[in-house]
Structures are given as structure tokens and as C-alpha cells.
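Thread: "does anyone have the structure for this chain?"

Original post by V.I.:
We have the sequence but no experimental structure in hand. Need at least a predicted one for the grant figures.
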Amino acid sequence: MTPATAPRPTTASERLHGLDALRGIAALAVVIMHAHVLMPEFPDVFPRGYLAVDFFFMLSGYVMARTYEPRLRAGMSGLRFFAARYKRLWPTMALGGVLFLPFLAEGTRGQDLVLWQVALVNLLLLPSPWSGNYFALNVPAWSIFFELVANAAHALLWRVRTVFIAMLAAISFAWLVSAALVHGHLDIGSRNGDMGEGLARVATAYALGVVIWRLWGERKVPSVAGIFALIAMPLWFAIPDRSDGYNWLHDVIFVGLLCVPILIGGIALRGGHRISAALGELSFPLYAIHYPLLYWFRAAGAPPVIAIAGCVAGAAMVVICAAVWKRHRRRA
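Reply from O.Q.:
Generated one for you, C-alpha cells below.
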């Protein structure tokens, strides 16, 4: 199957509210995971919350194929596609970076660095070659960088036949399994030297997302699949760390076996539009600014639960401000 014969959405403007809900749940799991990392007194509720990134990558591949491949067929240039993605992602990520500036010295863990260089490179959504983390200014931005890499590849290769995209996913998955065996888990890709691991994660999941859109589209499945999706993902994130050396296997099973049915189950969720839409709207701002906000709340001595609630409130403020700005621009 080629992009030209890929299934089209039943309603071009229809939002997939089930995927919005899953996106919001995954973002909240990341916040709760990082709350434990930065405030160890808070329980480790989602020790595998880092797997939310793989779901985000797969979801992005699906949504980008659904939204942009018809436009690319209609004449949209690859450069315009990539520019639209960068324009969509950069402002909120930059806000997260600016919020973290007072903590950058702490975030670089005492390394002897020229901090303004790290900040400038990271603000452009580029990895820093100097710091221990590629994005010391806002650690979660590493996944946004790799998503943009996938978007650029998609813009160039969208005409490639689906069978070759599936082969890419399989090869990348083999690479990912190898990396998981070496590291003992899939919490990889954000640290300097992890470029290959990050590429393996995004190539596997993003390519699978494109394949799901082209082969599955928006076919309806029983509603029980949607319930499965809502339950399975947070339950898997909550599986505790093992001491027998098999953490990597849990992570690989999620990416290789569970992520696809979770995504398809999310497509089946059609109810709860208001709640799902709210979760979807909050998800990206929450992911983009939660890490610096957790630092601010920790510095203020706030309890972890208040810090998590504050992150959600901060994301809601970003959504409201963006909506007001868009309304103002329309009127202007």
C-alpha cells in the first residue's frame, strides 16, 4: 500500500478524542514520574512512565500521516510541513526552557560549562554537545528533538511504500532490543552519547504509527478495546522495577506488543468528548513546562501533590493564553 491508497479519515476535521485522552494520561504519568525523581519523598507511582515517550512517538507517526500525507499529496512541500511542526512545537518548549533558566547551573550538575551556550542551543530545540543531558535547559525536550527528526524524515520519505516503512520499524526495533539489553531498560535517549538509542526509539514507534494509519486507518473496533487502552497503559507504567535483570523485557514488550493495540483501542474511544478534549489540549503544554515548574515548586518547599497540581494549572494557563491569542489574531 502506498500513501496514495492509504485510507482517509471518515471525517477530515474529526478529532480522535480517545487518542486525546490517552495523550493526556501519558503526559500526566510523565509528570508523576518526574515528581518522584525530583522529590523522592513522593511515591514512585509510575516507575516506567518513560515509556510514555514511545507512545507519543507512535501517536505522532499516526497523526502526522493522517493529517499531512493527504496535504503532501495535494502539493504541500516537505519544507512547509516541517516548518509547521517546528512552529507548533517551539513556542511552548521555549517557554519551558525560559522557566528553567534560574536552575540551569543545578541542572548541569556542576559541570564547568558556558551556560549561555547550552541555553541558546537548547532554546533552538537542538541538543547541547557540552552537557550531560542533551537538553539540560528542559530535559523532556530531548524527545521533541527526535520527533522533529522523524518529522523531517517523514517530509522527505512520505512517498515510500508502506512495506518499506514496516521494514524500517522492524530493523529499528531490533536495534532497540539490543540497546535495551545493554542498558537494562528503555529509559534512554536523553543523555549525551545516546543519539543512536534515541533514534532507535523514535524510528521504531513513529514508523509503526505511520504503518497503522496506512493499513488500519480509523476502522472501528469493539468498545472493550478502548477500555483496554485506558487501563493497560497506566497499569504498565506502574509495573515496579525488577531486581532480576528483566526490566528491559517489560519495556520491549510495551513497545513491540502493547503500544499498537493501545493506539488502536484509543481510536475506538468515541465518548467523553469534553474530558478527552481537555486532556488532549493540556497534554503538550503539560509535557513542555512541567519539569521546570517542578523545580520551582520544590524550591518553594511545596508538597509533591501541590507541585503536580500546579503543573496541571500552569499547563491550563498556557492553553487559555494560546486560545486568547488566537482569537485576538483572528479578529485583527
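V.I.: this helps a lot. The chain has one domain: 3-331.
O.Q.: and The CA atoms of residues 140 and 288 lie 7 Å apart.
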